[in-house]
Amino acid sequence: MTKELNSQAAQTQDAEQAAIEKRREHLKTESLRIIDIADCEPNSALKCIHQLSVAGGATEATYIAIEQRIVADQDTAGAYHLALLAQNTPDLPIDARQLIELVVNKGDNQQRLALLKNLLLPPVDMIKEQILASDDGDAIGLMNAYLQINPEGYGSQHMLSSGQSDQIVPLSPGNS
């Protein structure tokens, strides 16, 4: 009886190991495909980030390739989404600060306001300065209203955990 149980346990362990190896190979294949897209297709960062999400992960090289595509294209929408990913996965091999600065300095006010609301610790002063400099009355009003209820600029996740409600909405490129 004990031999039978040990045999079943070994088979289960072998099956689990095989499943892990299969998943690992799938991620490697998907990573190479995404890296190829990032390397060869201008303005493909959002497509790559979507593919990354569908695959359920990727290699470090994949994240680096996407970041390089974003920087090469000065893609503020891609930078926004990758920065949000980076804040939720702190060991990613990317420079989230560089991505955030790209959005703040070259993005539009909708993207800046989204950063203000969705980053855990947004660069409030930088965002505020850019929005005020834009002379966009609607954006300034939205920013002031948000900072009135959240003067420290803690992101929406902080507000949700402290009992206040706020909706976190991903920024879509069609609304830029």
Structure characterization notes:
With 176 residues, this protein is mostly helical.
Question: What are the key terms here?
Answer:
176 residues, mainly alpha
Provide a quick synopsis of the model.
The protein is mainly alpha-helical and 176 residues long.
**Total strands:** 0
What is the radius of gyration?
21 Å
Q: Would you list the SSEs in sequence order as H and E?
A: HHHHHHHHH
- Main β-sheet, in a few words? none
The helix content is over 70%
Tally of contiguous helical segments: 9
> Overall pLDDT, averaged?
86
Helical/strand content category: mainly alpha
Gross morphology is elongated
Spans of at least 5 consecutive residues with low confidence: 159-170, 172-176
Percentage of residues in DSSP E strands = under 5%
Termini separation: 66 Å
What's the topology here?
Layout: H1 2-40, H2 45-55, H3 60-73, H4 76-88, H5 96-106, H6 109-118, H7 124-134, H8 137-149, H9 156-161
Helix pairs in contact: 1-2, 1-3, 2-3, 3-4, 4-5, 6-7, 6-8
